[in-house]
């Protein structure tokens, strides 16, 4: 691979990068407060005019406009039972019982268990075991597939496997028994337990059993598993190509031949009990809107759920996710004092990390800083976490947008990297990068480096190495799919790091740099 690294490069926010955007939000989102203003309820006598937020937008995020994109309304219902006792007390008792009966029928229809006598004798047996987990699709891969869809004017279908884990087969030499569910003891089998013949929800190996079952079926109908992405399958017949992605029980199918797509859907329906959801609209909590050669990915509904869950619906929005220059320090509280605070800090940070992973790279650095204090937090950390929610309140309509109008078949890829230097208590630097396809962010990362660097140039060079590793994965995956790439322009704002990348000769000041980094940057 050859990487073109420009000599004259400015910061990535101003050199051929996305420009500032003005977001005009509906009046029900409140006004934009000063970054130092404490969160609070929006009073009824506030100005009801439209709010305007101006901010630096280096990630390719765009606001959803009311006329072109669908607006999703989410009602939060906290009525999820944890036991049969909860079902009995629920106002929606009958609906939950009906759902339970449907699930029980699926177990019977699938031949999930046999009934065996339960013996009192204890059979002592020791064996080594490892927890088996399911492989799932990377979100980067999902975004890349959507990029291919709009750039090639393909159709994309979505299917859902009903009770997917019940289709997984157990090993012949494995015997697993379970008690019959309460209220569902089969007459005449009292005092007996069930021997599982297939996997079941709650079994540690169930996800992997399902994945192996699906993999064997897909290989049997002509699909090949990609080397660089084990949950992406490809089937080629002449010039025809079908791509299939798997995320547990969510399956998407696309390609350049609609007849072959329909054939693949029919084969899946014949072998598994499937729900055909038609054109892809929502997957993994992401709202997907495909219109012609434009696709948007947003999580406005998920943000609204978070605001409601953490009692921030009426908070005042702010224009940035964190205060510039503010450094969160570890709490001095001991574990028992942290527990006594009874703050859902970890839960909130995990929810925010999910947003970063899916569609909101603009809060990546703020969430990274919050994640450093999951075991040593206090009110100051909780306040900063709520500030991110306040930022999301004012920007909840932001989305990732891929626009291939006028560029069908084009693969304009650019990448940006940056790093600070020793700006933490342990003197480690932070690497950040963006990978942009036609101006849309497909990959973003903000991560502390694993080593202590000795200069700004070395820190920037390590960040460049992290970016190149990500680009190599994209290049090799696209080549595997039949879309070989040319040179990719990498934007770096440090001339010394660029010089080291172009001329990695042995030098007194750089000889200590890891050979792994040199190998990546010299590809």
Automatic annotation (TrEMBL):
Q: What gene makes this protein?
A: Aste57867_2901
Checking Pfam families in the record gives: RVT_2
Where are the stretches annotated Disordered?
A: 1-56
Residues making up the signal peptide according to the UniProt record:
none
Q: What protein is this chain from? A: Aste57867_2901 protein
InterPro entries for this protein: DNA/RNA_pol_sf (IPR043502), RVT_2 (IPR013103)
- Which superkingdom is the protein from? Eukaryota
Which organism encodes this protein? Aphanomyces stellatus
UniProt feature, compositional bias: Polar residues: 1-27
**Reverse transcriptase Ty1/copia-type domain spans which residues?**
134-322
